[in-house]
Amino acid sequence: LQPSPIKGVHNSVWKQSPGTEVVKRISDNTASVTEINQLREYIVTVLTRFAHDERILMWDIYNEPGRGGNEHYSLRLLQLTWDWAQSVRPSQPLTSCLDGSIGKKIKA
Could you report the per-residue pLDDT of 51-70, keeping only the tens digit for each? Predict the structure, then answer.
């Protein structure tokens, strides 16, 4: 559960989502079908809802994979997230900010 933000403090309660343990389970193929489906459903639902909304300039579908202790574990989730987002075919471009990413495979 994410705590309430501290007023006036930027990113005061920022959390790595979906969390390091989930990212690692996805990387080593031990994540449950439920975990994978929840992530897929969230991404597909949000992108479908706003796929043609002119207020959306672009989608940053996974910001800085590899941060927060995830190192190279993030690559598999990045690939899945990209596939799920592309399946929606939104009118806006898809991006993933790799600035600050850690891991040779992610930077390649």
Answer: 999 999 999 998 878 777 77
Cα–Cα distance measured from residue 29 to residue 79, given in angstroms and rounded to the nearest whole number: 13
Mean pLDDT, the chain cut into blocks of 10 residues (108 residues total): 81 76 93 96 96 96 78 88 96 84 58
The upper half-sphere exposure of residue 46, i.e. CA atoms within 13 Å in the direction of its Cβ, equals: 13
The three-class DSSP label of residue 102 is coil
Residue 94 and residue 66: Cα distance in Å, rounded?
18
CB atoms inside a 10 Å sphere around CB 102? 18
What is each CA distance from 94 to 7, 37, 38, in whole angstroms?
A: 31, 21, 20
Distance CA 31, CA 19 (A): 12
